[in-house]
Design brief:
Number of helices: 9
Order of helices and strands: EEEEEEEEEEEEEEEEEEEEEHHHHHHHHH
CATH architecture of one domain: Up-down Bundle
Strand order of the largest sheet: 1-2-3-4-5
CATH topology of one domain: Methane Monooxygenase Hydroxylase, Chain G, domain 1
Largest sheet: 5 strands, antiparallel
Structural class: alpha+beta
Radius of gyration: 35 Å
Number of strands: 21
Strand content: 15-25%
Shape: elongated
Length: 467
């Protein structure tokens, strides 16, 4: 069953990615956690009241790519998204709905107005035409380049995409109304103007799409090792080596990057024996070094991942507690002085926890600064309100009553447990009074007599408490 029930239910796509269209938005999640509605990608839906069963979700898995076709409830236009399991990124690519084709060596997909590579690169082009359909592909004799031809039947326009399997790049597409390609790779194309005319300009391009690229190889090089291996094998080897270079440029956010490097380097070294030969510039040597370095980095990387996860978990915990406290402070005005003191004590505690986050490795400094600033501002605001409340004649009555009650209970104590309970109550009152003195003493009150009066009142109570 693809459905996962819970507070925030979602649809599982073979446990790789999770989709839901409830609560007013379409959300993509990477964790099978129905306790939260947060994900890595979201966009609004038209009907916020739909259930999990109302949406139509179709998918295709192509290596690390998961292609999604989603139709939310009461909507007529499908949404097309691509999730990359390695980079954990989602892109809205509606061009897939028009036409989509696999790139060579399972390196990604090409569609009517762009491409998405397995390495994480995504790019779209503005061709000026919609409704394009894939017509055919033209493979160069060198085995390295492939041209993908898309055609718009109504307007008669062609869009030509040229892809290089080694560089893993797509050149800027060519838009034309017709083209021809000869065996030598010469391409002639034309563009039809909107107005009829007698003369039409033709463009002549020299392309790599030669039917047989071996004819240009000098006779003396035909006995070389690389010539005997052949273009197709060489291109595959170079393409896979290029993928390793791309992986080396990826950061820690790329899933299992070191494991992937170990696997890829071993596959290339085992699959292409000729890499150790002089003719191949002994490419096996740097690949061996990469393999060894990636192996040694795996253990250290696991430690870093665990540290980051622990820091992220603690940060999320403190952030949630802080947000809850700030909401409570803003939303409720205390009825007595002890309510103000509780707010101030909680704010002081939270700020201490926020400052403690700075000591953790891989902490989010920007988030910590933001939380610290907001808690400090809330503390200042509550402190000001506390002082204004303390200016009232009966502001400290709750403490007077509490101290008197505890003192009366001292004479009635018959058990050790009762003495401990009374002592705790007196200690708490004393701590809260100390906090009040500290707050009032640090505030800039224009009327110094007010500061003196408040501190004297609190000190008098404190003296009574210790008497």
């Amino acid at each position: 069953d693809m459905h996962r029930s819970g507070e925030h239910p979602h649809i599982s796509v073979e446990d790789r990615v999770f989709v839901e269209t409830i609560g007013g938005d379409l959300t993509i999640k990477v964790e099978d956690n129905t306790a939260t509605g947060q994900g890595i990608y979201s966009e609004p839906v038209e009907d916020p009241d739909q259930t999990l069963d109302d949406a139509e979700v179709m998918y295709a898995i192509l290596g690390p790519l998961v292609l999604l076709r989603i139709l939310p409830y009461r909507e007529t236009k499908h949404r097309f998204l691509v999730f990359n399991g390695k980079t954990r990124e989602v892109h809205r690519l509606d061009g897939i709905g028009q036409s989509c084709v696999l790139l060579p060596e399972d390196q990604g997909i090409l569609f009517a107005n762009g491409y998405a590579l397995a390495t994480g690169e995504v790019k779209t082009f503005e061709t000026g035409h919609s409704g394009l359909r894939f017509e055919r592909r033209i493979i160069a004799g060198n085995g390295e380049d492939t041209m993908f031809v898309f055609y718009q039947r109504n307007s008669g326009h062609y869009v030509l995409f040229s892809y290089n399997v080694i560089a893993q790049t797509v050149e800027t597409p060519i838009v034309c109304n017709g083209f021809g390609l000869d065996a030598e790779g010469i391409m002639v194309l034309f563009q039809a103007p909107e107005q009829a005319q007698k003369h039409h300009a033709l463009q002549v391009w020299r392309t790599p799409y030669v039917l047989d690229s071996t004819t240009s190889v000098p006779q003396e090089k035909r006995d070389s090792l690389l010539f005997k291996i052949g273009n197709s094998t060489l291109v595959r080897g170079m393409a896979e080596a290029r993928e390793i270079l791309i992986l080396l440029g990826k950061g820690d956010t790329y899933a299992d990057v070191y494991l992937e490097l170990v696997r890829r380097t071993r596959e290339v070294l085992d699959g292409y024996f000729w890499l150790k030969e002089d003719a191949a510039r002994k490419l096996s040597e740097p690949l061996d070094a990469i393999h060894a370095a990636a192996n040694s980095a795996i253990d250290e990387f696991d430690k870093v991942v665990k540290l980051r996860q622990a820091t992220a978990s603690r940060t999320a915990e403190v952030q949630a507690a802080t947000e809850k406290l700030l909401t409570a402070v803003r939303g409720s005005a205390p009825d007595d002085i002890r309510g103000f003191v509780r707010h101030l004590a909680d704010l002081r505690l939270r700020r201490g926890e926020i400052i403690g986050l700075r000591e953790l490795r891989y902490s989010d400094n920007a988030l910590i600064e933001d939380l610290d600033k907001r808690v400090s501002e809330a503390t200042d605001a509550v402190s000001e309100k506390t002082v204004q409340f303390l200016l009232q004649e009966k502001a400290l009555d709750p403490y007077r009553l509490a101290i008197e009650t505890q003192r009366e209970s001292l004479a009635k104590i018959t058990k050790t447990a009762e003495a401990d309970e009374t002592g705790k109550g007196l200690d708490q009152a004393g701590s809260e009074l100390e906090l009040l003195i500290d707050i009032v003493g640090n505030l800039r009150i224009q009327d110094a007599t007010q500061t003196t009066a408040i501190i004297e009142s609190i000190s008098s109570l404190y003296a009574t408490l210790n008497g």
